[in-house]
Amino acid sequence: MQIILHYRGGVNYFPNSASYKKTKNPLGDKIMNHFFTSVLLTIFVLLSSCMKPVNITIPDGMERFQAMPITGAKDSWKLNFGGIHIDKIKDIDSRILLVDSKYSLYHIKSFEFTMKTIDNTQHQCYCEFPLSLMEDKTISCTFQDVNNQLETGQLINGVISSSFGDISVEEYFEYDDKESDSKDVLIGYLFKDSGKNVGLVDIANRYNETVWIDPSIDLQKQVLIAAGAASFILKHRKWYERHN
Question: Which helix (H) or strand (E) holds 32?
Answer without folding.
Answer: helix 26-49
